Amino acid sequence: MTVTKNLKPTGLAALAASSLLALAACSPAAPGVTTSSSSSAQSATDSANITASASPTPSPGTSATVGNIVAGFPETLIPAMPGATVISSSFDKTAAPATVALVGSVAAPTAAVVDFYAKHLEGLGFKAVPGDAVGAVASKDFVRNGTETVNVAVVEAAGVSTFTIGANVAVESAK
Prior knowledge:
This protein has helices at 9-25, 110-123, and strands at residues 62-66, 85-92, 98-106, 127-128, 133-134, 137-144, 148-157, 160-169. With 175 residues, it is an alpha+beta fold. The chain has a domain at 59-175. Strands 1, 2, 3, 4, 5, 6, 7 and 8 form an 8-stranded antiparallel β-sheet that branches.
């Protein structure tokens, strides 16, 4: 994936959202979803063989929202950076480990975003893992107790940094 320096904040939001969707696509298919598989020459009409169950009912401990911090979000663990606009947030406390995600943007350089979250996470006992980027994207990983992880990824364009923070932590840590 190539990221150009001409992305506008809305383009960055779309980039961040598509990154989250790509991660979601890596998870197993929902129960009741089946697909037929055959050769790559399968016709478009064969796509009708794909069936899906009714929309899943949200789990009582899972929540997500766009444009806000979702109710129950563990802001002590992952706070919104001062001055940041929240693009989306999600929280699943039913999973073990619990999963937490925050996407936001702020008029600050990439280094300031990474530094803010590094200081915050280190104050909570997380240790930075070596490495500061994945390709051209600033990306910093943190680990605590050998099992809890947090990733901070930041893309900057036109003085606006769009960041995505994903955490997998013990349920008791996500409060």
